[in-house]
Each structure stands twice: as C-alpha cells, then as structure tokens.
Amino acid sequence: MYIRPVEEADLDSLHCLAKEAPVGLTSLPADRKLLADKIQESMASLYLDDPAAWRRLLLVLVDTANGKIAGISGIEREEDRAHHYRKVSNPASLQLRDTPVSPTKLGSLMLRAAYRGRGLGALLSKSRFLYIADHQQYFGGHLHAELRGWSSPRGDTPFWSEIGRLLYDKELSEMDQLRGRSPVSFASQYLSNHDVPMHFLSPDLEKNLGQVHVDAKNALRMLEQERFVHTDYIDVLDGGPILRAAIQDIYSIRTSTLLSIESRVGTEVPLDKWMISNRAGDAFRACLAPAYRDAGALLVDSEVIELLRVEPGASVRSLAARGAIVGDRHG
Fold first, then answer.
1. How far apart are CA 216 and CA 222, in angstroms?
2. Is 2-251's fold the same as 256-320's?
3. Rounded CA gap, 179 and 202, in Å?
4. Which of 228, 177, 140, 130 is nearest to 25 (CA)?
5. Residue spans per domain, the chain
6. What percent of the chain has pLDDT over 90?
7. 3-state SS string over 9-47?
8. pLDDT above 70: residue 329
9. N or C: which end of the chain has fewer CB within 10 A?
10. Cis bond leading into 100, ω under 30°?
11. How many CB atoms are located within 10 Å of the residue 268 CB?
C-alpha cells in the first residue's frame, strides 16, 4: 500500500469511491465532470512555481495487490468567500460570515471500509502533513478542517431540521450536493443572509452546536492530536465544527524527521511502524512500513525503497506511527 498524487486514470475509481461517500463529504462529489476538474487542478498544482496559483492536492491510497484505489485525502485552497456561521454571545446568535477561516483546508478524506483498522486511515491523513512539511510555500500559515455535524439518536440532523428546513426548500442531501458542485453559486443563490437568534434553537441543539457526527469522532480525535483547535465557526448546513491549526504547530509536521533511507539487508533489528515520504513534489510517494532508526538513518526492506522510488541514501521525511489515531473521513 502506498500514497501518490491522483492521476487522470483514477477518474473511474474516484467516481466509484465518491458514490460511497456519506452526506457531508462535499469535497468528494459523485459527479464525473467535477471530479475530472479536481483531478486536473491537483495535477496542475504539482508543477506550479507561483504559490498564488496553487489550487488543490489530492492523494490516493493504492493497494499494491490489485492496483485499486482504497482511499483518498486532500488539501485545497479556500474560496475567497467561504460561508459559515459564527457563534457570538452579544446578542446570543449565529451570524453568517463569508471570510475564510484559513487560506487552505483539509478535505476529501475517505477510506474504504475493508481497509480500516490497519493504520491506513492515519497514513492517508498524515501523508498530507508530510507533503506540507516540504512544500510550505503553497499553504499559508494556517489550515482548517470542517467535520460532519451532530445527529440525534433518531439519526436525523437537528441543525438542519430546526434551521435548514425553515430557510431552504430542498433536502439536506440536495443542498450538500449543490454546495459541492459550486460553492460560490450555492452561496449567492441559496444562503439566507440573516442571523439566527439562539432562542430559535431547542436546548438540545444549542448544547450540541459544533459537535460531530458519530462517524466523524475518529477524525476529530486525530485533528485534536495534531493540535487543531475548535473555533467559533460552524457549518451552515449541519452545524458541524470547524477546527484550525497553525502549520508550525501541527504535531506531525513538527515531529517528523529527515533521515537517510537505507536497506536493512542482513541486519537483525527490532522494527517499528513508520510513515515515510520521499519528499518529492510531482512524484510524491508515502507509505507505512516496518523500519528501524539508527542515528540519522532509517533502515527498511529494499521493497520499501523501491516503493518510494528513491535510491539508498536518499533523504526521506519520517514519522513514527506508534499510537497513531486513525481518522477515516472528514469534510
């Protein structure tokens, strides 16, 4: 299993993956044309010299046993006008805002169910941070992430039931799809530019504003482990939380290490799991592999060196995977 940037040939696989995505994963729409556009933007962004022109990076997890795409993760430039509610206390209300929480955001994180529980969700998520660590010029000073909002024991989305249905004439899934296809036109056509007084909300909903859906709890724990913090902002459709972190504070970036990769042929040493990236831009690769750190060297099987497409002695970015929390999907 390894991580690489998305390619044109991945369109069919991504379309199948997107059709499996839950409501709330707006950055992975089940629309072939939109997915093709996102693939092209990601591929073009790998070769840019001008950071201002950078748009997005999509990384896919490839199963080496069958060549299939097992998961995806992404980073994208935030829109100049990004709408969300801000919780304010005077007066107690939700106020619609259109300023970005940060220049770039995490998204498109999804791992197929058959591959969960093996550390691959963490690899999908953290491989983005390994990439960012070596290409910080594209990402500004902060990142944010949007997570799916709280649902009641009945399985509905109370924020939508109490607020969304009063403002919009469509179902939540339809609105979510419209936002995924065109965030700018979605905002201009559908968003109601009105504050929402807190007394409109039931006590149960008010208490759970900014809380996550049960399926997003692993992703939330992973982000908190990475030193992302909760903000006063929530999603306009499901009331889900928006978290933010300074890039210099992100744990996986701060604790990753540059080491020389070497073959451990003939060396009997205790092995631990490491996340390893080849530090390349357009040829980026990352994997989760048994390895042993010996001073400034990382000893691995020769197959790992081949998988990363580097030569022995090359500089790689490495992160010990022990205790990693697996987050399977968000925004």
1. 10
2. no
3. 26
4. 177
5. 2-251, 256-320
6. 50
7. HHHHHHHHHHHCCCCCCCCCCCCHHHHHHHHHHHHHHCC
8. no
9. N
10. no
11. 7
Q: How is residue 330 written in tokens?
A: 């968000």
- DSSP lists the bridge partners of residue 162 as none
CATH number, span 256-320: 2.40.40.20
Q: Give residue 24's pLDDT band: very low, low, confident or very high (50, 70, 90).
A: low
State how far the Cα of 19 lies from the Cα of 98, in Å rounded to an integer.
Answer: 29
pLDDT of residue 322: 64
Alpha-carbon distance values, 178 to 82, 185, 213 (Å): 15, 9, 21
Pull the structure tokens for residue 230.
């909760």
pLDDT in tens, 227-260: 999 999 999 888 999 999 999 999 999 999 999 9
C-alpha 219/C-alpha 327 separation (Å) is: 4
The amino acid that residue 312 corresponds to is P
pLDDT of 158 over the 60 cut: yes
221's CB contacts (< 8 A; 6+ apart) are 325, 327
- What is the topology classification, in CATH, of domain 2-251? Aminopeptidase (3.40.630)
DSSP secondary structure letters along 278-324: ---STT--EEEEEEEEETTEEEE-HHHHHHHT--TT-EEEEEE-TTP
Token pair for 123: 């690899």
Q: How confident is the model at residue 275 (pLDDT cuts 50, 70, 90)?
A: very high
Closest Cα partner for 243 from 323, 161, 100, 145?
A: 145
Please report the DSSP string for 239-290 in residue order. --EEEEEEGGG-HHHHH-EEEEEEE-TT-----EEEEEE---STT--EEEEE
Tens digit of each residue's pLDDT (9 = 90 or more) over 84-141: 899 998 889 999 888 888 999 998 888 988 898 888 999 999 999 999 999 999 998 9
Query: Are the beta carbons of 147 and 216 closer than 8 angstroms?
Result: yes
Q: What share of the chain is helix, strand, coil (3-state, %, to 5)?
A: 35, 30, 35
Cα–Cα distances in angstroms (integers) from residue 200 to residues 93, 165, 166, 220, 234, in the given order: 9, 13, 11, 28, 16
Portion of the chain with pLDDT greater than 70, in percent = 94
